[in-house]
Write a structure and sequence with these properties.
Strand order of the largest sheet: 1-2
Number of helices: 5
Strand content: under 5%
Order of helices and strands: HHEEHHH
Shape: flat
Oligomer: single chain
Structural class: mainly alpha
Helix content: over 70%
Length: 171
């Protein structure tokens, strides 16, 4: 039986999913109404493809968030309220949803709005460089720059020799 926290989280997740659904519908309706209906004279196949692509991104993000937020029920009783949607990597899905909605609304009025989608891979590369590549390079550079003094080197050698002798005794 779940406590009050799990039930509250399940209700909060349901509210969040409802709001996300409304957000997706509003963004899609604005694009369909403005670009596909009012500005239909300037339509090309790319607009339809872009609209289908944004709908696919919206759908994937929504289904992923819904899968994580799904509460575990047993006999009508909430056992687990689902994941907390305010923490963890699930936040990146929200970011992609917001960027996609902004792109849909911006692309409703100008074709240059599609270029905002480039922010997602640019941000991914930025995170990769700042969180993974640069720290690894800094650690390697630090190890190369700091030569060991003689006492430290001898101490490490003795520690390694002791470890080797212990391994030989165990075998």
């Amino acid at each position: 039986m779940a406590g009050g926290g799990a039930k509250k989280r399940a209700e909060e997740n349901q509210r969040t999913l409802k709001l996300i659904g409304i957000y997706i519908l509003v963004c899609s309706a604005v694009f369909a109404g403005v670009r596909l209906w009012l500005k239909s004279a300037t339509l090309g196949w790319g607009h339809y493809a872009g609209f289908a692509g944004t709908l696919a991104v919206h759908g994937i993000c929504y289904l992923s968030i819904a899968a994580v937020a799904r509460p575990l029920m047993k006999g009508g009783v909430v056992i687990d309220g689902g994941a907390d949607l305010r923490k963890g990597a699930i936040q990146y899905y929200f970011d992609v949803l917001y960027v996609t909605g902004f792109v849909q609304i911006l692309a409703s009025f100008t074709d240059w709005g599609w270029y905002v989608f480039l922010l997602v891979p640019i941000f991914g590369v930025y995170l990769l460089v700042t969180k993974v590549i640069l720290p690894l390079m800094a650690a390697n550079k630090k190890q190369q720059e700091e030569p060991m003094d003689e006492a430290t080197r001898k101490r490490l050698e003795r520690t390694q020799q002791r470890a080797d002798r212990r391994r030989v005794k165990r075998i």
